[in-house]
């Protein structure tokens, strides 16, 4: 049995404000706007949501290990998207990309990096607006997540891997090989996964450990989910069946 991807989660100092920014970026809808967690509801067939959960700590100066790649349909769409997101609080940043790169690197209002991909990028051309959850990570961690989610590899070449849901809907999850960005603290972005309704949380945790994951303590206290780290030390949560 495999687990299902339930949510991509952001740590946020202003969950509602960040959710509204990403709703505009992705063209998704904001769900319940009350409480310490604000969710985005997909409008494009993606089968997981994006959650923004309140934390006190601001983002550190180091680059996130996970970021989003957003697709565009034309050069005009790319330009308009960049201009609109800067109006909403985004900004251009330099993470070492070359001057000849055709994608545009931005940071959201809380400093989380993301890319606006050029329309000629054929690799993501079959995806919707959310093209990829893009990760620093080794080839082996791509194999881990393929086995964990039951998503097939759609790319495995030159130390880079990518997986996508079996019906080829929604975004890819990609890993670009080493070296990994430093990780002085827990990631600001992580995945929430869960067994299906008839599944068993403990059995899934044991299976994930057999694949190379481990339990970790990030100060979660007494909760009904299990915090783990993948083989590259990136945190994720195993929720109760649903």
What does this structure look like?
It is a single chain. This protein is of the alpha+beta class and 242 residues long. It has a domain at 15-175: 2,3-Dihydroxybiphenyl 1,2-Dioxygenase, domain 1. It is built from 4 helices and 16 strands. It has helices spanning 15-26, 75-87, 139-149, 201-211, and strands at 4-12, 29-30, 37-41, 49-54, 66-70, 91-92, 104-107, 113-116, 130-135, 153-157, 160-163, 172-175, 189-194, 214-215, 226-229, 235-238. It has an 8-stranded mixed sheet, covered by helices on one side. A hairpin with an 8-residue loop joins strand 11 and strand 12 (172-175). The longest helix is centred in the middle third of the chain and has 13 residues, at 75-87. The model has no long low-confidence stretch (mean pLDDT 94).
The helix/strand class is alpha+beta
Low-confidence stretches: none
Oligomer category: single chain
* Second-tier CATH architecture of the domain at 15-175: Roll
Strand content: 25-35%
Count of strand segments:
16
* CATH-derived topology of the domain at 15-175: 2,3-Dihydroxybiphenyl 1,2-Dioxygenase, domain 1
Q: What is the tally of helical segments?
A: 4
Distance between the termini: 14 Å
The CATH class name of the domain at 15-175 reads Alpha Beta
As laid out across the biggest beta sheet, the strand order is 2-3-4-1-13-16-15-14
What profile does the largest beta sheet have? 8 strands, mixed
CATH homologous superfamily heading of the domain at 15-175: 2,3-Dihydroxybiphenyl 1,2-Dioxygenase, domain 1
What is the ordering of alpha helices and beta strands?
EHEEEEHEEEEHEEEEHEEE
Rg is 17 Å
Provide the residue-averaged pLDDT: 94
Helix content: 10-25%
Give the overall shape: globular
């Amino acid at each position: 049995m495999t687990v299902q991807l339930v949510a991509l989660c952001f740590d946020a100092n202003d969950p509602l404000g960040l959710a509204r920014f990403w709703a505009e970026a992705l063209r998704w809808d904001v769900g319940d706007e009350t409480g310490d967690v604000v969710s985005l509801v997909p409008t494009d067939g993606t089968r997981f949501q994006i959650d923004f959960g309140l934390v006190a700590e601001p983002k550190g100066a180091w680059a996130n290990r996970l970021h989003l790649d957003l697709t565009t349909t034309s050069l005009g769409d790319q330009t308009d998207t960049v201009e609109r997101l800067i109006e909403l609080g985004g900004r251009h940043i330099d993470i070492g990309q070359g001057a000849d790169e055709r994608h545009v690197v931005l940071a959201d209002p809380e400093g989380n990096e993301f890319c606006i991909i050029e329309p000629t990028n054929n690799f993501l051309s079959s995806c919707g607006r959310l093209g990829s959850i893009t990760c620093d990570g080794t080839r082996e961690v791509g194999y881990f997540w393929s086995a964990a989610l039951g998503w097939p590899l759609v790319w495995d070449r030159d130390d880079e891997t990518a997986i996508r849901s079996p019906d080829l809907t929604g975004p890819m999850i990609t890993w670009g090989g080493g070296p990994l960005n430093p990780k002085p603290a827990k990631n600001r972005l992580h995945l929430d996964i869960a067994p299906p309704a008839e599944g068993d949380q403990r059995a899934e945790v044991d299976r994930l450990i057999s694949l190379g994951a481990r339990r970790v303590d990030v100060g979660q206290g007494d909760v009904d989910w299990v915090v783990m780290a993948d083989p590259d030390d990136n945190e994720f949560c195993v929720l109760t069946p649903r």
